[in-house]
Design brief:
448 residues, seven-stranded mixed β-sheet, alpha/beta, Aspartate Aminotransferase, domain 1, Aspartate Aminotransferase, domain 2, 2 domains, four-stranded mixed β-sheet, 17 helices, globular, binds pyridoxal-5'-phosphate
Length: 448
């Protein structure tokens, strides 16, 4: 645990704040990734800029060291500066970053993915998660010759998805009228949202709630019956829940699947996999090309990362460590008769949920974040465990949770939660609306 410790005071963040003051003049919302930005961290207490990482630890712009549970919001499946991956990147860097013709790594990585991901009869790459979810939606529209999309999670910044949220300014109404939602684990809501113009159902196979009553298999059946493509967004579950992702873990094979985050341990790469007859449309009908899709540093990183994940069965390691943390937290909370919070999710990725009945769960989250930071833990409510996290770090974290839960419990008892937050509390991550396909007129559905 070298370096990470209880601080007598909250971390000094003056260098972070100087960068932030400069950013505010130039960069709208100051951040490129909402989850990394000031709205997700108690403003005034939490560091805003990180300079360095090693293993599961990071150092901020003021030199403070933290144990990190965000891990770059998912990508660092192995850890910061993981030697085998960095070596692969450095070796490739000496040969070149990106080229004028294709690179053999495109083939090598495709062959590896073909072996481990059940539906990967055919594979394409891009850079960001939204690139491949959007490519999947376009393929589904072309293949089925229908237009509507049904979704129920977060799938990136592109028009077809952001249409279903309240942050839909700039998206033509004609586009908005093609995207609708359904409720996870509610097969009736999915069935009701389907109509004769539905091209695809896209969902994260699991976020923090396990599928119930065979939900994924039922959804797959429903799609087959209605000539609808099923797309799994495996941005989080891929290479984490199981080597072959959720499709392997739950044994439900979607028509198309989308990966990014953990596949290249921090290098920007996304992957679209799918059944050949659908993916073949990319040969000559559906357009999906970009400049950097075959960029070699990221592919070299992916090759090394996938090798390492398979060689060490990383998902199994993440499960074991994650279970210790999840069960440990719930045991501590139980022993303290705490009902306002619970640790939920699959073991390799869990979150601390705060009871909605508490009048302001975001205040509780803010106070917890502040007190975790004081004890050297960079925390946004999630545990994105990596292969670099260790048992002793989990033990340390559980000791910290014990102290922090007690502070929260007393703060609630004394009605002092808000007063104890020494900065601006965290904001909701993303506002969603329920835009079901089974009411009309459309504008009325949106409640606007
Ligand atoms: C489930 C899911 N899908 C899609 C995306 C979009 O990926 P990107 O931000 O790389 O475009 C994200 C990003 O966090 C995600 O969590």
């Amino acid at each position: 645990m070298n370096g990470v410790k209880f601080n007598l005071n909250y971390p000094v963040i003056s260098e972070s704040d100087k960068f932030y003051a400069r950013a505010k003049n130039l960069i709208p919302s100051a951040t490129q990734t909402m989850a990394k930005g000031p709205s997700q961290h108690v403003n005034g207490v939490s560091p805003k800029y990180l300079l360095k990482g090693k293993g599961s630890h990071v150092w901020d712009a003021d030199g403070n060291e933290y144990l990190d549970y965000n891990m770059a919001i998912g990508p660092l499946s192995l850890g910061y500066c993981y030697p085998v991956v960095d070596e692969a990147i450095k070796n490739q860097l000496e040969q070149g970053i990106t080229f004028s013709l294709m690179h053999p790594l495109e083939v090598e990585v495709a062959e590896m993915i073909n072996k481990i991901i059940p539906n990967a009869e055919s594979i394409r790459y891009s850079k960001g998660g939204a690139d491949v979810t959007s490519a999947a939606v376009r393929l589904a529209r072309a293949f089925t010759k229908k237009n509507k999309v049904l979704c129920c999670g977060y799938h990136g910044w592109h028009d077809w998805y952001v249409s279903v949220t309240k942050r839909n300014a700039g998206i033509p109404e004609e586009i908005q009228n093609l995207s609708y939602t359904f409720n996870y684990n509610d097969i009736n809501s999915l069935e009701k949202s389907i109509d004769s113009n539905t091209a695809c159902v896209i969902l994260e196979p699991m976020v923090f709630e396990y599928p119930k009553n065979n939900f994924l298999a039922e959804a797959s059946e429903l799609c087959k019956k209605n000539n609808i493509l099923l797309i799994f967004d495996e941005m989080w579950t891929g290479f984490r829940l199981e080597i072959g992702g959720a499709q392997e873990y739950f044994n439900v094979v979607p028509d198309l699947a989308c990966y990014s985050k953990a596949v290249a341990n921090g290098m920007p790469l996304s992957v679209l996999t799918g059944k050949r007859e659908i993916m073949d449309l990319l040969d000559d009908q559906v357009f999906f090309y970009n400049t950097f899709g075959g960029e070699a540093l990221s592919l070299a990183a992916a090759k090394a990362t996938i090798n390492e994940i398979c060689k060490n069965n990383v998902p199994s390691y993440l499960r074991n460590l994650g279970a210790k943390l999840k069960n440990g937290y719930n045991k501590i909370a139980g022993a303290m008769n705490i009902e306002f919070s619970k640790c939920i999710g699959y073991d390799a990725r869990t979150m601390i949920a705060f009871n909605e009945e508490y009048k302001n769960p975001l205040e509780l989250k803010s106070l917890m974040q502040q007190e975790m930071l004081k004890r050297g833990i960079l925390w946004s409510g999630f545990h994105n465990i990596s292969y670099s996290h260790t048992e002793s770090e989990i033990d340390y974290t559980l000791n910290v949770y014990e102290e922090v839960l007690f502070i929260l419990k007393m703060a609630i008892r004394d009605n002092k939660v808000k007063d104890m937050i020494k900065g601006i509390p965290v904001q909701p991550l993303f506002r969603k609306t329920n835009v079901f396909n089974n009411e009309s007129p459309r504008r009325k559905q949106r409640g606007i």
